[in-house]
Amino acid sequence: MTIDFYYMTGSPPCTVISIILAELGIESQVNRHLINVEAKEHLTEEYAKKNPQRKAPTIVDDGFALSESRAIAKYLVAKYGNNKYYPQDIKARALIDQRLDFDIGTLYPKLFEVYKSTVLGLSLSEDQRNKTDEAFTVLNNILGSSEYVAGAEPSLADISLALTALVCEAFKINMKQYPNTTRWLTLVRSTIPKFENIAMEYVKFCEQLVSSKEKSQ
Ligand SMILES: N[C@@H](CCC(=O)N[C@@H](CS)C(=O)NCC(=O)O)C(=O)O
Known about the structure:
The protein is 58% helix and 8% strand. It is built from eight helices and four strands. The chain is globular, with a radius of gyration of 17 Å. Bound molecules: glutathione.
């Protein structure tokens, strides 16, 4: 069995999949394919057969192609992980899905705006700043009454949301305003074994982006 994993450097959703592959202990069965973005490898018709959105990450598992990091994460834990981090209990799973949807629909898009402002120099409007604060306040409030984002146990939602929060921090969002979130980030980093090394490698990449942007100004 081999899983083909198509990824890009500097990509939060690809980093999430790398963490999950490591957590499941199946990295040795994975063929990693680094997409050459400059050569537009992801825009080819061949790649579109695997991922109609022409983005990364994508996996191909025994001929089965799948994209969207959160869908990939659920598939991998169902097939290879005995549902680790995604329990079968309907309500537990629904809560994890809700948190993952909050990430893709609300928090992660804010990360993209913060990235565009910090690294690409586009201005962030007052409204965008307020909406980013609103999204982080929602996360902080969830974590006020729950150890992890979907209850007392770590889940896929913690891996996905924690990476979004860590990257925003690297892009200079002051996370000290969200004390429940900083408490939880420390918890995730110390209790999900493969999170720390892989996530921090990516955070360092972001910090270098920010510092080279600052030096060029
Ligand atoms: N919602 C998607 C996001 C995928 C995505 O936007 N990937 C970016 C890399 S972070 C990409 O492929 N960008 C290349 C492009 O848009 O041309 C997921 O979670 O997998």
